[in-house]
Amino acid sequence: FKGADTCEYLLSSGRFLGEKVWQPHSCMMHKYKNSEAKNCLIDKHVVFIGDSRIRQLFYSFIKLINPQVKEEGIKHGNIPFEDKSASIKVDFLWYPEVNGSMRQRIKSWTEGSVAKPHIIVVGAATWSIKIHNGSNEALAQYKINITSIAPLLEKLAISSDVYWVLQDPVYEDMLSESRKMITNEKIDAYNEAAVRILNSSSRNSKAKVKLFSVSKLIAQETIMKSADGLHLPESSRDTNAMILMNVYCNKIMKPIDGSCCQPQPPLTLIQKIAFCFFTLSIIGYFIISLIHRNNYRKNKSCTDLESGEEKKPAISAPNVSTLEMLLQCFCKLGLIMTYFYLCDRANLFMKENKFYTHSSFFIPIVYILVLGVFYTENTKETKVLNREQTDEWKGWMQLVILIYHISGASTFLPVYMHIRVLVAAYLFQTGYGHFSYFWLKGDFGVYRVCQVLFRLNFLVVVLCIVMDRPYQFYYFVPLVTVWFMIIYATLAVWPQIVQKKANGNCLWHFGLLLKLICLLTCIYFLSYSQDSFEKIFSFWPLSRCFELNGNVYEWWFRWKLDRYVVFHGMLFAFIYLALQKRQMISEGKGDPLFSNRVSSVLLFISIVSFLTYSIWASSCKNKTECNELHPSVSVVQILAFILIRNIPGYVRSVYSSFFAWFGKISLELFICQYHIWLAADTKGILVLIPGYPMFNVVVSTFIFVCVAHEISQITNDLAQIVVPKDNSTLLKRLLCIAGFFSGLHFFSAMQDQSRH
């Protein structure tokens, strides 16, 4: 790895993913929309100087600003373009040879108070080869001419971006008779001369002409699709134009998925404070560990000098104090967060764009399913959705979602729709699990609420601080947090109806159903009243949590997409627990859930429903229309899966320990993938080992899973310390947490003020 100059890599190296997607070496290229291109180039003047190949690049470039432009200009003349709405001027100047005329035009920009173009793109050679029949004298004259132009270009490069486009290879078999003298051997000689002469006199790095050599690599792969053997096909020149846009605009627009040419973001005030905190934690932990270890050694080797016999030590093992455990957790967390920062904020590791192929998604799916089936064990209990089964369900869903993200399968609509069901199934389990707990236990205490909120949000809060991202960026955690609070409020509000109370009087069941109907009504109203929803979450301090890019639209969209499924989970839990209480289902080992006849009918209906949903999802043509139907129909496949998994006694009695292991750390896996498995905030892929894609995935996955598992352990340990069972101690901790968030808000406000 030669350093962090991703601009150099973008201009000089890369490869094709598939046929049309260009992947620069070590960094990610953003696909600019027309509005973004205009915002970047506002009040800018861009000039293209050269022959017909440069004219092609000129047209591809201006189509990024205005796609309606047609290639109708004079072939052998200057072509102006202006976008008055953004005050953008782009000119093509016809200078097919590097000669005195080109030199005079370039010199005019270096003299006096003449306005210099902000971007200058120059390139020419094939006309010189053609006109002079590929003679050596023409090459010698080209060297002389480019030597005279080079100092002028270097002078312009101090204040402007100057690019010299090296000549692309030709497809000699397709060239017309009048162009047969343009050979790749001649082109290489001209390119070699340009590379050797340009920047040879410049010692100032700011005064360097940038060599646009990546076009050669693109042409080598695509020139055989050329219409005449000389000019690149449209898709290739569009790629060149997009590279040019990335080189200039990434440092201005700072797109998340455009890591090429982006400088490392400066540390924020909050990040600096976090760094100091973790550093002090690491130092403090090592100091306390050394003190305890020395005390333990002294007590262990106490020898009676008179008898010569060794006495038993006063302390048999070093006691781990609460402070030491706290510092140990923060020490490990500090090291892990350093890795997070290095992976996705520092320009240390490479990043690449995703590229979807069916094989990159379905082959890993088959592989993990085989592994999951191989690790089949008997469950400890055979109830519907028992702990092992729900862990297994979370585990295989999480692994499928991870493969979906790294393979870029969101571009394939049938896969996208099925993944939406998996996300809905997580929320279904949220409704089912929390309702079951409150209904059976009747525990509405503060301790329970704080434990759940801490376990859900701890990692995300730390990442918001370290990675400088808003809370809503990790959308799934705000989603499950809000739904937990909605479930809690629904059941805790007067009258509190729990199973113990309902067993005494059946009317309480109707009271609970009435609560659920009220909840459904509220959900329905908010889902069709975007203004009301946004008003609720635009109030401070909720706005600080749920705003993304200055508004709460993203939060509304995420909430609306799975708005009914938590309610479905609560309703399913209520019906299932009622049937279980009345012994209307059989949950013995090996027994079908219902009578043989009823079980067979339900199993058949479930399989048909499951397949029907998959057929509908696979036939989706429009993502927006399918997303509108998804909240109402996703429950069909979820319920079908639950019945298929639980009706047969044998299937209910076994589970995959492989999937269950991943299920126990599913939340950590989902969040950690943002920065240490994927890259650029999930837009790309982290590259630890360049040049070996499969080996890179194996290594990065191993580290990623280990980190997620370790963070899960840290979260559990800290939950015991930060959220104690004693109410008076818990109240003090809550006051400390409130103080922490107040301080965080204060520093965040200072940070925002300094940015503006």
TrEMBL record:
Species whose genome carries this gene: Oriolus oriolus
Superkingdom of source: Eukaryota
Transmembrane segments: 269-291, 325-343, 355-375, 396-417, 452-468, 474-494, 506-526, 561-579, 600-617, 659-679, 685-709, 730-750
Catalytic activity: CMP-N-acetyl-beta-neuraminate + acetyl-CoA = CMP-N-acetyl-9-O-acetyl-beta-neuraminate + CoA; CMP-N-acetyl-beta-neuraminate + acetyl-CoA = CMP-N-acetyl-7-O-acetyl-beta-neuraminate + CoA; a ganglioside GD3 (d18:1(4E)) + acetyl-CoA = a ganglioside Ac-O-7-GD3(d18:1(4E)) + CoA
Gene Ontology cellular-component annotations: Golgi membrane
A Gene Ontology molecular function term of the record: N-acetylneuraminate 9-O-acetyltransferase activity
Protein name: N-acetylneuraminate (7)9-O-acetyltransferase
Topological category with respect to the lipid bilayer: Multi-pass membrane protein
Domain NXPE C-terminal intervals: 22-72
Underlying gene: Casd1
